[in-house]
Amino acid sequence: MRGKIAFEEHIAIKETMEQTRSFATDSVRMNQFDRQILDVGDGRLEIMDKTGIEFAILSLNAPGIQAILDTRQAIDLAKKANDHIAEATARHPDRLGAFAALPMQDPDAAAEELRRCVEQLAFKGALVNGFTQRDRADSAIYYDLPEYRDFWAQVADLDVPFYLHPRMQIPAQAKNYEGHPWLMSAPWGFAVETSIHALRLCGSGLFDDYPTLKICVGHLGENIPFGLWRIDARMRFSPRGYRGKRPLGDYFRKHFHITTSGNFNDPAFKCTLEVLGKDKVYFSADYPFENMEDAAAWYDSTTTVSEQDRLQIGRTNAIRLFRLDLE
């Protein structure tokens, strides 16, 4: 399929490169990975052309700004990263868009930076790499907390999507992974960490306060679609601390938008479509942590969807969500 739109597509700047090098398993792969994640020009566009991806929304790699302990440094680096991405998208406005990196260490500064990026730089929304660390290395701050309510008010006012992207849990808060570090990252821990954060948002009353919020998550829903029926079923008996006015599943189905990034699997795709519906599911690749070729080859050939639905999920849903000026 030609004309696909992808929006979990990552870049790095010099200051965030070291955060992602562990995903390269040898020196050959590391050199290739470095080139790919730093590239915001011809190399990336060439692979997009090859795989039928017309437009990609770029975001800063994980954990990015969220791992910076000093608030002032986080604010400064977020602006630097966003200006860098803005320059790249300005060179290729018909092929590349941008998500804002945000200094969530300071909710007011994050709201201000998001407004700058959306109103002055024409960014399509924000992508934040999970919880934020602030002041202490063993801290983990989640965005359902009351201190972030004014930030969410800004997101709602700007009416742009907020992409909640995975990051690895910090060792001080990951005792259940001891002896099994492989569990902490992409094979399992990424989905666990992101799904818990997403469910915290659903259960916090956030969407009652701001009913127009739109939250994106990748990897076919970070395992939530598979478990959503049971979550709601058991919540009837153990709702202690739950602050939502409606069942949790209602919030997830209304407010969350799910991409195929990094989960190119028919059974999981079918489950997500059955739970969310085709209007809330989108194509994405997760480049360069995944290959665009793998993402496109699977999506273009899956028999899970009709050709009409393939076009909607791969293209027209994203045009509507981001109000893209594409034919």
- The string of secondary-structure elements, in order, is EHHEHEHEHEHHEHHEHEHH
Write down the domain tally: 1
| CATH class categorisation | Alpha Beta
Helical residues, percent: 40-55%
How would you portray this structure in words?
The chain is an alpha/beta fold. The chain has a single domain, classed as Metal-dependent hydrolases (TIM Barrel, Alpha-Beta Barrel). 44% of the residues lie in helices and 11% in strands. The protein has twelve helices and eight strands. The chain has an eight-stranded parallel sheet with strand order 1-2-3-4-5-6-7-8, sandwiched between helices. Helix 3 (71-91) runs parallel beside helix 4 and helix 4 runs parallel beside helix 5. It is globular, with a radius of gyration of 19 Å.
Short description:
This protein has 327 residues and is of the alpha/beta class.
List the helices and strands and how they pair.
Elements: E1 4-11, H1 27-38, H2 42-51, E2 53-60, H3 71-91, E3 96-100, H4 107-121, E4 125-128, H5 149-158, E5 162-164, H6 189-203, H7 206-209, E6 215-217, H8 224-235, H9 248-255, E7 256-259, H10 266-276, E8 281-282, H11 292-301, H12 307-322
Parallel strand pairs: 1-2, 2-3, 3-4, 4-5, 5-6, 6-7, 7-8
Helix pairs in contact: 2-11, 3-4, 4-5
